[in-house]
Structures are given as C-alpha cells and as structure tokens.
Design goal:
Pfam families: DHODB_Fe-S_bind (PF10418), NAD_binding_1 (PF00175). This protein folds into two domains: about 90 residues, Beta Barrel (Elongation Factor Tu (Ef-tu), domain 3); about 160 residues, Rossmann fold (3-Layer(aba) Sandwich). The chain contains nine helices and 16 strands. The chain binds FE2/S2 (inorganic) cluster. FE2/S2 (inorganic) cluster binds next to loops.
C-alpha cells in the first residue's frame, strides 16, 4: 500500500498528492509516469510524475478530477493509502545542454513540464516557460515554474492573467523576437500540442510532446495506448510517452480518444451510484 503524505487542492478539482513510494522515487526521472489503482475494483489511471524527492522517498502526482476514477482518487485524504502505484514507467526525457529550451504547459500539463524544466535548467540551458490556462483561477505551479525558469510567460484564454490568448501566440512572439530556440517541449491538451507542432514545424524547431492516450497495462502488452508516429505504430507506455511532435498523428490520437467516450461516461455513472 502507498500512503498519501500530503494532499493539496491546487485549483478547483485539481489535486496534488505526495505519495510515499521510496523505490519509485529512487529511480524516477522527468518525463516518466506511474499507473495508479485505488483498490481491487479500481481502474488503472496513468499519471505523469510531477515531482520526486529521493531523500524523502516520495513521488508527487497532480491530477484533475474529470471522471469517476479520478474523482474517487480525489476523495482520498492524507493518511489514506492506494493499493497499486506502479512505476516509474515510460522513457525519461532526454536532458542535455542544448541552448534555449522553451517549456510549454497547458492546463494540468504544467505538472509534468515542471520536472523537465528543472532538469533542463540544471543541465545549464536557458529555460523559457510558457504556462497557459483558460483563466487565472486554474493556473497551477506558477511559483515552482518561476523557480526553475529564466523567464515565465503566462497566457489565459480570457486575459485574466498574462497575455490574452493561447500559448502558441506567445511562442510565435518569442520566435519573432529572434530568440534562437533549440528545443520546444509541450505538454497539455492534444489540440494545444498539435497547434504548437504546427507553429514550430514551419521554422524547423525540434519539438517534443508527451502523449497521454488511454492506457491499460502500461507495459506494452494491451495495445490500448497505440499512437501513429511517422509511418510507425508506437505504444506510448513503452516507446514514449514523449515523441517528436512533427511526426505524431494528432488527428488519429484524438479520434482514438473519442472512441472511448461512451465507455468512460458509462463508467462514471456507475462510480457515482
Ligand atoms: Fe497497454 Fe501501452 S498501455 S500497450
């Protein structure tokens, strides 16, 4: 069993849990994820690692309560335990000193971007971060992102904080300012990652996205997380979750996600009974 040491609500329906998991904390790297199962009847929930502390032996996860399982997870409290907490899974982010790195997090996507930005900064890069949200009240980890970035830009859809508009507007402004960008890392809603990929493609800027498709086993056995990258089928759980954004078939990914909407809605109804 894995104990919840800290629970914090970062914004409405967005929870941070610090979990006691020393063996995972020992090995975890930016970009990897865990699969959580609350109890024996629970669905497996893949969540990207938002932070790890090797000394304390903890893993931090941040999740949005969007369906039955994540709502059930959000109902747990400090001192409660989770049955399964498996990881670290997936490939770690390739971190090296390459120059100017732009880290983009959309919504809850800021959570997995944070350890990557920190790793890139520690490797000696100049890190510029762009955080996007629908409005100010759902912005998360602003202080943490400021601590690991040379500069942070905020965009909100309604203009309640930072630039009114999308992360891609800010990215375009950075490119137009003449900043020589060596790498863009973008994590967030699929539509956002697709827009970032379209923006950087025309400038030939290397861009990495982290995909979070439906996952079941997380070990490459079930095929649930299949994504098309270039001309190849890849499994996000073992080949990713990070991929070259210019090769990802985002439209295929979105239609696969839509395929499971009915089942998800049915599951949510059952959980709420
Ligand atoms: Fe089953 Fe990736 S989650 S193959």
């Amino acid at each position: 069993m894995y104990k919840i040491l800290t629970k914090k609500e970062l914004s409405q329906g967005v929870q941070l849990f610090e979990i006691e998991a020393p063996l995972i904390a020992k090995k975890a790297q930016p970009g990897q994820f865990v699969i959580v199962r609350i109890d024996e009847d629970g669905e497996r929930i893949p969540l990207t690692i938002a932070d790890f502390n090797r000394d304390k032996g903890t893993i931090t996860i941040i999740f949005q309560e969007v369906g039955g399982s994540t709502k059930q997870l959000g109902d747990l409290n400090e001192g409660d335990s989770i049955l399964d907490f498996v990881g670290p899974l997936g490939k770690a982010t390739h971190i090296e000193k390459i120059g100017n790195v732009v880290c983009i997090g959309g919504g809850i996507g800021v959570a997995p971007v944070y350890p990557i930005a920190r790793g890139m900064k520690q490797a000696g890069n100049h890190v510029v971060s762009i955080m996007g949200a629908r409005n100010e009240s759902i912005l998360i980890l602003e202080e943490e992102m400021n601590a690991v970035s040379d500069k942070v830009y905020i965009t909100t859809d309604d203009g309640s904080k930072g630039h009114k508009g999308f992360v891609t507007d800010q990215l375009k402004m950075l490119i137009d300012s003449g900043l020589e960008i060596s790498l863009v890392i973008a994590i967030g809603p699929v539509v956002m990652m697709r827009s970032v990929a379209e923006t950087t493609r025309q400038y030939g800027i290397k861009t990495i996205v982290s995909l979070n498709p439906i996952m079941v086993d997380g070990t490459g056995m079930c095929g649930g997380c299949r994504v098309q990258v270039g001309n190849e089928s890849k499994f996000a759980c073992v080949d990713g979750p990070e991929f070259d954004a210019h090769q990802v078939d985002f439209n295929g990914l979105m239609s696969r996600q839509r395929m499971y909407k009915t089942q998800e809605a049915a599951h949510e109804c059952q959980c709420e009974k």
